[in-house]
Amino acid sequence: MRTRFLEVDTSKGYLLLLGLLGALLAAGLGAAWIMEHHGHHVTGMDNQIVWGLPHVFAVFLIVAASGALNVASIGSVFGKMPYKPLARLSGLLAIALLAGGLMILVLDLGRPDRLIVAMTTYNFKSIFAWNIFLYNGFFLIVAAYLWTLMDHTVSEHAGRVGLFAFVWRLILTTGTGSIFGFLIAREAYDAAIMAPLFIALSLVYGKAIFILVATGLFRGTGRELDTSLLSRLRVLLGTFIAAALLLTAAQHLTNLYAAEHLAAEMLILRDGGSITQAFWIGQILLGSLLPMWLLLNPAFRGHCGALLAACVLVILGGLATMYVTIIGGQSVPLELFPGMEISSSFFDGEVIHYAPSLPELGLGLGGGALALLVVLLGVRVLPFLPDALPSSAAADD
Amino acid sequence: MSEQPIDRYRRRLLGGAVAAGTLTLAPGVFLHRIAAAKTDAEPVTSIVRWGLLVDTGKCSDCTACVDACREEHGWHGHDRPRSDAQWIRKVELRDRSTGRRVSLPMMCQHCAEPPCVDVCPTGASFKRADGIVLVDKHICIGCRYCMMACPYKARSFVHEDLTDQKPHSPRGKGTVESCTLCVHRVDAGQQPACVEACAQDGGGALLFGDLNDPRSAIHQALATFPSTQVRADLGLDLGVRYRGL
Amino acid sequence: MLRLLSALLLLLATLPATAAEEGGRVPLPVIDSGTAEQCVEPVEFMRRNHMELILHQRDETVHRGIRTKQQSLRNCINCHAVDAAGQPVSLDDPQHFCVSCHRYAAVKIDCFQCHSGTPEEGVPGVVGAGAWSRGLAMESAR
Question: What is the dihedral of CA C73, C77, B157, A134, to 10 degrees?
């Protein structure tokens, strides 16, 4: 039973959403202009908290981007037939989320006019340089993958290209996690587990965003949605959340065991004020435990609302996780002289408090808006969406 | 003087002795010249490794080094302590168990294995052949990853438009900067501004010189007295050493 | 509609030609080379290749520590950022040596975001005698 793919028709709701997201994107670009014109002193980022809210959003989007490709990989790489019709949307969403994340990162640079320098001059000992290479490659590979999915003359290559994309995205997410994992200077980072942790997080965020976007698009365009497929996604998402929680627990328990890392852990787990709240309430409760309950509890099986609520919670929890990781990690004072109390004019020894600013929030939301805009425009212009999902009875592996 | 026959043997002996002595001393003099100051047209080499020794016993509450650096490079700040650049800062320490107090300046440690150089995506953060770690602000894109990576929080980001930069110390909005070990002075055979200021107005706690030259004061001081590197467990082999910690 | 569009395009295309004339919108650059008698290279060479010199030499200086006076940006500024009377010219002044040409050619330079565009005080040739710049000319002569 061949799936029919169709572009989305323009409707009033579609145009309204387009306008809204366009306005949000414009606000983001305006925020970037303010930051670039006046310099970063108008933001909450400074010499103590170097990376702030824009990076929270950007890393979240980039991590989610690689996970969003997962649905397509399950179809092409692991051969699960029910997911194949969703592969095109999965690829589009992956590209869109990555574009949004990269937009934030590039516009936050101190010298965004030197982007060409960044893309042509590489120090290959830097994981950042590798990431630039991996992100650009991801665009090309997913585009090629979409081509094999959408052009039936090259469709026999879909499996191979899909596998290549799958491996590439694992390397990419390893690289993203290693951005922090390779920082030997900071107690809260400097851990090999950050790479696999980020892979687990990518599976969680990517899947949650995909479910929300797919449901929204299907419902919004009056397409039939297969509930049993959603049910499978529900279990998968719940499992991924459990895996991410396990790796998070391993990271924190290991750090708690070492006297060297105790101060950093206590800051995050107990003494960090907003950081601690973001961790326990945002990352653990709302981002992991509550969604797991909504997803894996048999009482909610078939309950679409529970699935969507879980996805929204996961996204909020994901932002909280990035906040704890990026901001919390930087708030920990560097231990230059163990056993000594330290003070200076450069805030040595002090826990740094970070107050995000409006331009930072604007830029972050603008990146998210770009991602959704790319999806909306994509489904309008090209046949990404299946006309209707086949029922699961007809397609079982 | 009465006429005396020329003693050729004596002349030859003297000439030979002078020649032998010159040949023996010349390499040392030549090497010392290279180590001391290079000409404008010569590239830097790794024959020299510049280093700084801080004697915390001689360091008091004064901020002569900080003031001199600020004046030399023009990072006067805008009354925004969180985002103003600080290339060097005075750090006050108190031992938790004994109560002993120490004061010392903290700046870029000019590591031999700099984490900031490792992480810079464009290679703007680099180590010169003579050991000085610098930022090539022509290719710095302002990503601030090096600031995340520095174990000593030595780097600062320029958060605003700048005017009236010092001609010998270019700095601009959107790029990262840190202590240059006064590379413009060092290349001219002078000492860094902080070292000069400490000698003049401070306690004479800073000693600058060539770590590779066995006859330099800093090399001999390091060979004679105990000294440490900050966060030595990271294995970065620093150019800045501290004594009396 | 099409005719209106093509008429508009034609009008826009002819605008640059009218602007370059005397009394056009964009004033011709003022090439006041200050008190210097001769630059480090001949004028024809510098006109076409000064950017190559700057872009190449900066790497030599920053990475390898080569600081020859002939190819030092500081010395370029010291010579050129003064008017014929030896008075320093500010970057805001459209008559600044670098600014006037680059504004005319609409080639944006970001050198002065970091580098000082004002000549150094106490350097001969800035206010008063051109002795130093004459000495520079002797140095660069081969």
Answer: -40
CATH classification (class only), A5-332+358-384: mainly alpha
- State whether residue A179 sits within 8 Å of chain B by CB: yes
Measured between CA atoms, the residue of chain A closest to residue B152 is: A336
CATH topology of domain B50-243: Alpha-Beta Plaits (3.30.70)
Residues contacting A326, CB < 8 A, separation 6+ = A51, A52, A55, A56, A59, A180
CB contact under 8 A, C62 and B40: no
Which residues in chain A are closer than 8 Å to B94, comparing Cβ atoms?
A: 340-341
Task: State the Cα–Cα distance between residues A74 and A78, nearest whole angstrom.
Answer: 5
| Residue B94 sits at the chain C interface (C-beta within 8 Å) | no
Per-position pLDDT tens, chain A of length 397: 467 787 877 888 899 999 999 999 999 999 999 999 999 999 999 999 999 999 999 999 999 999 999 999 988 888 888 888 899 999 999 999 999 999 999 999 999 999 999 989 999 999 999 999 999 999 999 999 999 999 999 999 999 999 999 999 999 999 999 999 999 999 999 899 999 999 999 999 999 999 999 999 998 888 888 777 878 889 899 999 999 999 999 999 999 999 889 989 999 999 999 999 999 999 999 999 999 999 999 998 888 899 999 999 999 999 999 999 999 999 999 999 999 999 999 999 999 999 999 999 999 999 999 999 999 999 999 999 988 776 444 444 3
**What is the ipTM metric for this complex?**
0.93
C120 touches chain B (CB under 8 A): yes
Interchain proximity B230–A337, CB inside 8 Å: yes
Domain ranges of chain B: 1-36, 50-243
**Quick check: B187 and C67 CB within 8 A?**
yes
Among C62, C126, C139, most B C-beta atoms within 10 A, so best to mutate, is C62
* Amino acid letter, residue A334: L
What is the pTM for the complete model shown?
Answer: 0.89
Mutate to test the interface with C, among B34, B38, B39, B40 (most CBs of C within 10 A): B40
B12 touches chain C (CB under 8 A): no
